[in-house]
Structure formats: C-alpha cells, structure tokens
Amino acid sequence: MKRNILLHPDPRLKKAADPVADLSDDLRALSDDMLETMYDAPGIGLAAPQVGVLKRLIVLDCVKEEGELPRPLVMFNPEVVASSDETSVYEEGCLSIPEQYAEVTRPAEVEVRWIDRDGTERSETFDKLWATCVQHEIDHLDGKLFIDYLKPLKRQMITRKMVKMKRELARG
Ligand code: GNR
Ligand code: NI
C-alpha cells in the first residue's frame, strides 16, 4: 500500500526517531509500503519519518542504470560506523522538499551497520550515490534535512517556497 509523504515544513520531519526494538510483521509491512512508495515517487530512498512513522527504518535502491536489476535495501536501526576523510559533492533532492535541489558535501564512503528484514545484522561499505543516499536517509532519522547543510538564506528561501506550495496544495 502506497503511503503519503510528509512535506517540509512538518514538525515530524524535525524529530529524532526511536530505535526499533523487535522486528514484527507490522514493521515488515511498513518497509514493503515504503519501498512501494519510494519506487512510485520515484525516489532512491525513503525514511520512515517521511511517512509519519518515527521509527529508525529506511529503504533505498540507488541502482539507476536502465536494464540493471533493482537492489531494494531495508535497514532497521542503521548506523554509520566509519566515514572516509575524502568527501564528494552531490546535487541532492528530497521527496519531502519536491522540486528543490542543492549541492551537499558529505563523506565519499561510509560503512553502515544495520538489521535487515530477516533480523540479521549486516554491514557494508557504500560509495558514490549509495553513500550520499544512505547518509541522507539516516539524517532523516535524526530529524535532519539536506537543506540544514545550506546557508541560512538559501534554506529560508526553500522553506518559504515550500510553505507556499503546501498552502496551494491545501486549497486544492
Ligand atoms: O530520491 C531521492 N534522490 C536523492 C538524490 C540525491 C541525494 C539524495 C536523494 S534521496 C531522495 C529521496 C528522499 O527524499 N529520501 O529521503
Ligand atoms: Ni529525503
């Protein structure tokens, strides 16, 4: 089932999410819904707070070559355990801030540890778009958005545009 994606500004997007204590069928169903919502958007990642659930759960699939097999990843309680000194810059966007893009500098490689859909602890080192995306998603779990890395003036401009967009959406 597709879920609604919250739009910035929303207090739920600014809160730290709670760790998942036990995997349940409900949480697995939520992760399925999040993947469906992400692919439908379309996007390359989605964090549970973006659908209004303040739990530490993210999904991502950064495979973008035409004809390549999809690689959906579901991560419960993801943590960055190591980051490279080398950085990379990507033009980021966010499904909660549609049509707004800006360059963000982040570590080029990160090692991430998480619990998968089956409850197994896993870890993997990500680079390129995967590294940027997984950091962007984990930030959502800490109530942080990519615009928080921008200069205050630019962030304010984007937030004002979003307030306007939400007002127009609400009027219908
Ligand atoms: O779909 C998305 N694209 C994207 C592009 C560059 C850097 C990060 C992202 S994540 C974003 C989906 C989203 O908002 N996830 O929280
Ligand atoms: Ni996002």
Write out key terms for the chains shown.
172 residues, alpha+beta, Peptide Deformylase, 5-stranded antiparallel sheet, two-stranded antiparallel sheet, 3 helices, 7 strands, binds ligand GNR, binds nickel (II) ion
Can you describe this structure?
- It is globular, with a radius of gyration of 16 Å.
- It has 172 residues and is an alpha+beta fold.
- Helix content is 29%, strand content 28%.
- The mean pLDDT is 97.
- It has one domain (11-171): Peptide Deformylase, CATH 3.90.45.
- It contains 3 helices and 7 strands; from the N terminus they run αβββββββαα.
- A hairpin with a 2-residue loop joins strand 4 (87-94) and strand 5 (97-107).
- Ligand GNR is lined by residues 43-47, 50, 90, 92-96, 132-133, 136-137, 140.
Tell me, rounded to a whole number, the average pLDDT: 97
Spatially, the strands of the biggest sheet line up as 1-2-3-6-7
The number of helical runs is 3
- Helix/strand-derived category reads alpha+beta
For the CA atoms, what is the radius of gyration? 16 Å
Task: Tell me the helix content.
Answer: 25-40%
**First-residue to last-residue Cα separation:** 24 Å
In one word, what is the shape?
A: globular
Query: Any idea of the CATH topology?
Result: Peptide Deformylase
| CATH architecture name | Alpha-Beta Complex
Q: Superfamily at the CATH H level?
A: Peptide deformylase
Question: What is the count of β-strands?
Answer: 7
Report the bound ligands by name, code or SMILES: ligand GNR, nickel (II) ion
Number of domains: 1
The CATH class is identified as Alpha Beta
Low-confidence stretches: none
Order of helices and strands: HEEEEEEEHH
Strand content: 25-35%
Main sheet overview? 5 strands, antiparallel
